[in-house]
Design brief:
The protein contains 20 helices and 18 strands. By secondary structure, the chain is α/β, with parallel strands linked by helices.
């Protein structure tokens, strides 16, 4: 008779992976490292439930995880090794913090008995990420792994969502843990009281020039429908904040434009001249207010009503007349329930806001002196032929001004762009989007400088079969910096020239369909071929370097 086999408790590394499964994680982005081999081994056993996507650079992996968090509303998961791996992944943590995106970065760490000796790749992650992430923790006791992971998931999604960093000492990961994994309990959202919402209604009904400002993260299909219903019934003009244009269907008659870099002067004047500003979900930042000039701080001339999921964000810069700690779903639902007044004074105000947007987003007259591809025409063509659920990504650079101005966002979670202005974001984000939504069209728009931050991630797209189109806008320079350089140090070009590779040959080396387009009239056919290609495609758009913005030329 064989003795009963006693099962040993799982290691902390396996409890971590069990915790991921319990929290619904189905994809992990990583660059492998010897510091967390136990976790990689545990992921091998659940490869049918959790896909491990190996990026080619930790910055690419972190950006993919951040984009995945934007798309799902659940924490995007990234794993990197200690030291250089963590420092290179920090860009994704910064983006998640500024963009209010739920994300968890797991970092392999040196053994606990070596701490403080400045050993190989040692970093104090609590100090390094302390003011960048919502919470930074190092697991020093294997029995607390389940507790810490559950708290990490809770922290990443509660209040204002954001990044959490968890350091994993290699000796702790292989230590048996007596506490099994368990799932955190998500808080139920609190809705504003009827009495408080009556005050909101009274303020709005008394307005003559109201403006609805929407932004932030966490917008579900239902929340966007509720805010659209509210805006339509009240006929209030709607301005989306920086790189949040997909919250409100740009085709609706209440859409007034984008509070952004290079914003429409008519829209900035409208914000300045509004008498009531209703801000929902958004932090009221320097970009949306043109360097805090459109609203006076701390007491704006406009009556401000502010809904935000994090109490600390309400009154951070601007003191509101009414402030509500509520997530976007509860906020939009409460607003949609408000009955509008019988007589509105602002219908003409809303109509003129819409007309100003249509004028601003209309194609400008062709520049007879310009060479190369006209980006306004290219973005408008993409808008016409892509389905409404197409996901468009971009990083940072002046090229994005054309995208944000001449494209049209029609559904939520179709715009992936870093509000922190991080270069290189577009391609990793597009890969995450294509893997998350293989049935949808995904297009990355990237400047040549932006693309060259992570061009190696074309290998990741190819390896995992991501279907997407990359548009590389090639003007041979860092355009945004050159613009500022010409303003402040005219004709003294320093550090802004850029020599790139043969982008078509580079893309083909990774198995992509690739073309170069140098004339506007050739773009439509090239885009059609890329769109029809069942896989990875890249189009290099050669543009006029003098065409620095839609309205500015280098002379």
């Amino acid at each position: 008779m064989n003795p009963t086999k006693t099962l040993s408790p799982p290691t902390a590394g396996r409890v971590l992976v069990d915790s991921l499964r319990l929290h619904g994680v189905d994809r992990v982005f990583c660059v492998p490292g010897e510091s967390y081999l136990e976790v990689l081994d545990a992921l091998y056993d659940v490869s049918d439930q959790i896909q491990l996507v190996v990026a080619k650079h930790e910055g690419g992996a972190a950006n993919m995880a951040e984009a995945d968090g934007k798309l799902t509303g659940r924490p995007g998961i990234c794993m990197v090794t200690r030291g250089p791996g963590a420092t290179q992944a920090s860009v994704g943590v910064h983006t998640a913090q500024q963009d209010s995106t739920p994300m968890i970065l797991f970092v392999g760490q040196i053994a606990t008995d070596q701490a403080g000796r400045d050993v190989f790749q040692e970093v104090d992650y609590v100090s390094m990420f302390g003011k960048l992430a919502k919470w930074v923790v190092e697991v020093t006791d294997a029995s607390r792994m389940a507790e810490i992971i559950a708290r990490a998931f809770h922290t990443a999604v509660s209040g204002r969502p954001g990044p959490v960093v968890v350091a994993l000492p290699e000796d702790v990961l292989v230590t048996p843990s007596s506490t099994p994994a368990y799932r955190s309990t998500r808080l139920e959202s609190a809705e504003p009281s009827a009495k408080s919402m009556a005050k909101v209604r009274a303020m709005l009904a008394a307005a003559s020039r109201p403006l609805l400002m929407v932004g932030g993260s966490g917008w579900s299909d239902d929340a966007t429908k509720d805010i659209a219903n509210f805006a339509a019934r009240w006929n209030i003009p709607v301005a989306c904040t920086f790189r949040r244009q997909d919250i409100f269907d740009n085709r609706l008659p209440q859409y007034a434009g984008h509070l952004s870099l290079g914003m429409n002067v008519a829209l900035s004047d409208r914000l300045k001249n509004a008498d009531v500003v209703l801000a929902v979900g958004t932090r009221i930042t320097d970009v949306a207010t043109d360097g805090y000039s459109l609203l006076k701080a701390p007491n704006p001339d406009q009556a401000l009503i502010h809904f935000h999921p994090e109490a600390h964000e309400i009154g951070r810069v601007y003191r509101p007349e009414l402030g509500f700690e509520a997530d976007v779903a509860a906020s939009a639902l409460s607003l949609a329930a408000l009955s509008p007044p019988e007589n509105r004074e602002w219908d003409g105000w809303t109509a003129s806001a819409r007309e100003a947007y249509l004028i601003f987003s209309a194609l400008p007259a062709p520049d007879a002196q310009a060479t190369g591809v006209d980006l306004a025409s290219a973005m408008r063509h993409a808008r016409m032929v892509l389905p409404s659920d197409a996901i468009v990504t971009n990083g940072a650079g002046n090229y994005s001004v054309w995208l944000h101005r001449f494209f049209e966002y029609r559904q939520p979670r179709t715009e992936l762009a870093p509000t922190c202005g991080a270069m290189g974001y577009g391609l990793p984000a597009a890969i995450a989007a294509a893997l998350r939504n293989p049935e949808r069209k995904v297009v990355c728009v990237a400047g040549d400088g932006c693309f060259l931050m992570y061009p190696q991630e074309l290998a990741t797209a190819s390896q995992y079969g991501a279907r997407l189109i990359v548009l590389v806008v090639n003007n041979g320079m860092y355009g945004t910096i050159r613009m500022h350089q010409e303003k402040h140090y005219p004709k003294r070009i320093s550090g802004t020239q850029l020599k790139g590779p043969d982008y078509v040959a580079l893309a083909k080396a990774f198995g992509a369909h690739a073309e170069r387009v140098s004339e506007t009239e050739d773009f439509a056919a090239a885009f059609s071929r890329a769109n029809a290609h069942d896989g990875l495609a890249l189009i290099e758009l050669v543009t006029d370097p003098r065409q620095i913005t839609p309205s500015m030329r280098l002379n």
